[in-house]
Amino acid sequence: MTALLELKSVETYIGGSRILRGVDLEINPGEVVALMGRNGVGKTTTLRSITGVLPVRAGTITLNGESIEKLPMDVRARAGIGYVPQGRDIFPHLTVEENLHVGLVVHGRKGAAAKASLDRVFTLFPVLKEMLARKGGVLSGGQQQQLAIGRALLTNPKLLILDEPTEGIQPSIIEQIGDTLKKLKVEGFGHNYSEEVQNAVKILKAEGNLAILLVEQFVDFCRECADRFYAMDRGVVVVSGPIATLTDEVVKEHLQV
Ligand SMILES: Nc1ncnc2c1ncn2[C@@H]1O[C@H](COP(=O)(O)OP(=O)(O)OP(=O)(O)O)[C@@H](O)[C@H]1O
Ligand SMILES: [Mg+2]
To answer: What value does the mean pLDDT take over residues 225-249?
Structure first.
């Protein structure tokens, strides 16, 4: 099977410093993968290298087997990489509705296709429907996060990249985001989900495989949502494997401050 996304020996510099020192990482269709590690080890830099915000100095990045590391950001986005950066990045002066329309416009979706995409987002995040007329900037942190993820989904990505979706958010909202990620997870269907969740999974399943790459510091959250994990330290992956192998020892050695 060809991986959906594959990084091989990726090196990325910021200024004169080599921040990524040969990152290897792989995501298969439909997988939820957690990228973990202490502050400053290069998680966000890895995501920026994948999305094209930062140029890669050495190594390769492939999407469905095709080299993308030289392509500009917008081309990678249209090729199926949806990105929700750390700190959310919504437009505070636009309403929720306008923010969502940005997502539709970026992907050139109109009419019935646009409506279907919006309905899907409202199924996943009902709170957004109630707040359509409100300015993004007045939403709570958790609501802004849902808006940012919703907007990214409107571009219909094959790979959704989330940088610390739970940062600065209340535990109850973290649970909501966790539930949503579970809905989005194509595999793992067959649990005792509510009807609404099952519908969401069916819709997403019919649309194709959505994989999720998630930078996250909350270990419990990763254990709940992810299929596999990678732990980074100082610019390289130091340990990876199925999420069941993310033991307390691994957490202590590589993740705890
Ligand atoms: N614009 C920049 N200029 C200089 N150094 C930077 C810049 N952005 C990041 N770095 C450095 O690169 C390293 C990796 O940063 P990165 O943001 O990838 O870390 P991270 O793992 O995402 O950390 P966090 O958990 O705090 O978000 C850090 O040492 C950081 O100081
Ligand atoms: Mg970061």
So the answer is: 95
